[in-house]
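Field: sequence (string)
Field: structure_tokens (string)

Example rows 1 and 2, in order.
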Amino acid sequence: MNQADKPNGAREETVETIKSLGVILLIVLVLRIFLFQPFTIPSSSMKPNLLIGDYIVVSKFSYGFSRHSIPFSPPLFKGRIFGSAPKRGDVVVFKTPANNRTDLIKRVVGLPGDSIQVTDGVLSINGKALPRVADGQGNPDACANGATPTRFIETNPIGKRYETYDCGPDGALDNTPVYVVPEGHYFMMGDNRDNSADSRVPPEVGGVGFVPAENLVGKAQIILASWENVSLFKPWTWFLNLRGDRFVHPIK
């Protein structure tokens, strides 16, 4: 081989490698925008259904697409394309209306036009209290007040059943005024009812308020894996702290 051909060959190989990486990144970006996106649960606001360290997969196509489907939420268009409405009880990732950047995850409890109120810890939709049945006690670390939470099985108006936590009576969010959900918006609540700054709390004091349909990112579908107190710099915790019972676990 001519010595002059070696640099050219190396250059061509580098170009091909860059092209291949570019194609891979493009495929990943397309999948992330149009199909699925992973998230890690950072807080206890959705206990007992989602735990800190759960690695979940969100379907981006469930509600169509908005500018928030794209990384960094560029203002390319308004509203949703191929949009479909979430159902009551869906667990949804959305951009908080306060800054349109922070990802939050809550449960949809109120649809446009609904009247929502919490009285003595019991959720009412359009004047009807949702039935709930006590189902033992939960983990004390779920309650900021140090109490042991009561676990309830709540049933919403379409018959969807899911667990919630109640950390005791007379909590700051146990009694609310009536909220009327505006058109094109949704009312979100965390399953850990006494420890969730959700739609019951106005954005100006650190809450969520009503969530515009445009801010929906996708529906939380499955817990792919889950770790407790895992450390990136302690590889043995990747295996020892894996929660085996939450591997490929559906989200209710």
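Row 2 begins here:
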Amino acid sequence: MLNSLSGRFLILTTVFVMLAEVLIFVPSIARFREDYLLNRLERAQIASLALLADDMLEAKLEAELLENAGVFNVVLRRDEVRQLMLSSPIPSAISETYDLRMAGPMVLIKDATARLFNPDDQIIRVIGAPVREAGLLIEVTMETGPLRSAMIDYGLRVLALSAVISIITAFLLFLAVRVVLVRPIKGVVDTMQRYALAPEDARGVIQPNAGVTELREAEEALLMLQTELTQALKQRERLAQLGGAVAKVSHDLRNILTSAQLFTDRIEGSEDPLVRRMAPKLVNSITRAVSLCEGTLAFGRAEEPAPTLTMVPLAGVIDDVVASERLAVADACVQITNEIPEDLVVRADPEQMFRVVMNLVRNARQALVASNKPGQITVTAGERDDSWWIEVRDTGPGLPPKAQENLFTPFQGGVRKGGTGLGLAISEELVRGHGGTLMLKHTGPEGTAFEICLPRGDGTF
């Protein structure tokens, strides 16, 4: 209860109302003390009127008048003459004198606070102006015990009333917060929890109905989020089903194309000139189809296996890549050069690193061949204090803007006609599995360069 929004609001409201009442209490108690002293002066003035009416008063009657006034003696100044109107024995010396004619609010608050915290019963002199202009001033002496007791009694009553007011106020605010804020927020939370359990159930989508502007905006934002998420989940489910179907089709199609590839090998040996002329084109078409199926199957896996990291001589891995690609460019004016230092050893999975560099070199080779111009592909590498780097650069025509925008996006980042862009997407995923990065350093008419960055040590840069 206390940890809830409404519970904490209840506690804070009570505390703040009590604090406000305390701030009111201090000037209030000062005003009470002033009224108390003025009342004693007025009573003393009324008692002195009896002496003005009859110059001779019995001692018993004088003592009774002073007791009713709550003072020990009364001095009245009339016509610049001080007259001791009524008097009785004072039990001790006068400790303080207070002139109410000149006292401001701060003085009254200071004197009231000092009296409230001083438990000693003292004799004080109080000076004030007579009521109804019955003289120049009136002065009385009195004890502080009754004054302090009256102040404490008044203060307790004020504090008790303040406590009642604060509790009632806090309870009403508690109910208001429960109705205006907590209940709508709880409704939003319940909707979110219900939606999380069954996102496909349309009944879990919130229907904005809050009257508070901020809550209404939150509900509308949640509605938009739930709508977009539901559509995304439906699309994801459809894509997953489509991906499963494509993987199955690609698997079976790859087997069929592999068989067809065996037949084309025999066709190439035919003596028929037309067959010999058409066979290479057929072989290339089937080879591209097999490559597409293999790439689709590779990307369609849930995830690539985690790399087995070992210290690998990089030059040997790149030699295998260059030897494989040189077979494909035997009749083309494309040179592939391995400039990896023989003593460079990197921390990587050799099989996965072979696939990454192979994809980059193959993409560069295909771009150069498509440009119908001689070109150069160079693989270099080196090391920094915190990482190893491998660079694959070419002298090709550069990447088109569309390919740059979707460089590592599968089925969108293809450069050559008929390409799928799976090679770069798979390569980027493999490098990321090493804790590294694959990025495009630059591209343009002077050529393109990709850089692989592999972390040293624990894999952090």
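free_text_note (row 2): The chain has three domains: 5-168, 213-298, 306-455.
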